[in-house]
Amino acid sequence: MPSQTAAGYERFAALEANGVSPLYEEWAASIAKDDAVLGLIDGLPRPKRQPNLVFAAARLVGAPLGKYPQFREWLLEHWPAVEPVIQARMTQTNEAARCAVLLPLLSRIEGPVALIEAGAAAGFCLYPDRYSYRYQHDGGETVLHPDSCPSPVQLTCALTGAEPPKRLPDVVWRAGIDLNPLSVQDPQDMAWLQTLVWPEHRERRNRLSAVAGIAAADPPHLLQGDIVEELPQLVARAPKDATVVVFHSAVLPYLEAEHRQRFVDRVQDLNVTWISNEGEAALPAVKNQLTRSAEGNLVLSLNGKPQAFTGPHGQSYEGLG
Ligand SMILES: C[S@@+](CC[C@H](N)C(=O)[O-])C[C@H]1O[C@@H](n2cnc3c(N)ncnc32)[C@H](O)[C@@H]1O
């Protein structure tokens, strides 16, 4: 019977990396059968044992992107340098392309918008008004640019079951909260974000660099702290004449169920527009309204009502009617 860690690596290889990253699939499947490497990983605190974190830390330190025997030899030798990175860092993948699935909702808001992101990482989803979009749909393509001028960041999204957005939002104020905000002005934080993108995903890494360029020109205001504790004070600071939108994406799995419920209660107590883009298990009250499974997609909801199934990296938007 495989250990819990071995089973986790097996599961990661089969369900997460399969068809997405052949390299991570091979590394994870091989580690699941490798007692020496499993022994090192089992010496870490439980939340630190996840393949994504271990592989990214190894790559940051310089692991070769080769077949498993080469990676294994390197990892056993360099573990004393890799372990502190694992201990210091968390998986904080920041995917600006998720703005493409927020836009259909944000574009419906008339007038100025104050955006608050809960669980913002480096805050790269706080710039939906600074990116260009290409929506591919039955009727062809809809292309949108900020102020009619193409952005260095172009996000492509396959759209079904909904009207393509007609405009970008008028964002007049933006701020985020994170337990560990990453700074676009800190080269080490940016190197970590680059390494969190899986090895074969060169296009996503290129996009990340372009997004960082946009954010660096006008760095986001990011508050360090817990999303339940810090949300009220940020909402209070937002301009009074703007529609305050609180959104979050791929954040709730980090919270225990009771903590998640406190966040939901808090956001519903504040007089804000609430957009959630999370896995279907994250919000039982949203899941109960679905008539079918999201099948690995995220569920986009507006004020607790499901609106769409969305690709995990913002690559698709399937309106739920
Ligand atoms: C996977 S990242 C997603 C970042 C961004 N929302 C996106 O979609 O690209 C999740 C972020 O949530 C943050 N986070 C997790 N639990 C948190 C909490 N209780 N309070 C504040 N931030 C939290 C993590 O530090 C991490 O940066």
Quick overview:
With 321 residues, the protein is α/β, with parallel strands linked by helices. It has helices at 4-17, 22-31, 35-42, 51-61, 68-88, 99-106, 187-196, 202-217, 227-237, 257-269, 284-287; strands at 112-118, 132-137, 140-144, 154-160, 170-178, 221-224, 243-249, 273-279, 298-302, 305-310, 316-319.
Describe the structure in your own words.
A hairpin with a 2-residue loop joins strand 9 (298-302) and strand 10 (305-310). The chain folds into 2 domains: 4-88, no CATH class; 96-319, 3-Layer(aba) Sandwich (Rossmann fold), CATH 3.40.50. The chain is an alpha/beta fold and 321 residues long. It is globular. The chain has 11 helices and 11 strands. It has an 11-stranded mixed sheet with strand order 3-2-4-11-10-9-8-7-1-5-6, with helices on both faces. 39% of the residues are buried. The longest helix is centred in the N-terminal third of the chain and has 21 residues, at 68-88. The structure holds S-adenosylmethionine (SAM).
Biggest sheet architecture: 11 strands, mixed
- Note the run of SSEs as H and E: HHHHHHEEEEEHHEHEHEHEEE
CATH third-level topology of the largest domain: Rossmann fold
Oligomer: single chain
Main β-sheet, spatial strand arrangement? 3-2-4-11-10-9-8-7-1-5-6
How many H/I helices? 11
Number of domains: 2
Hetero groups in this structure are: S-adenosylmethionine
The level of helicity is 25-40%
CA distance, first residue to last residue: 46 Å
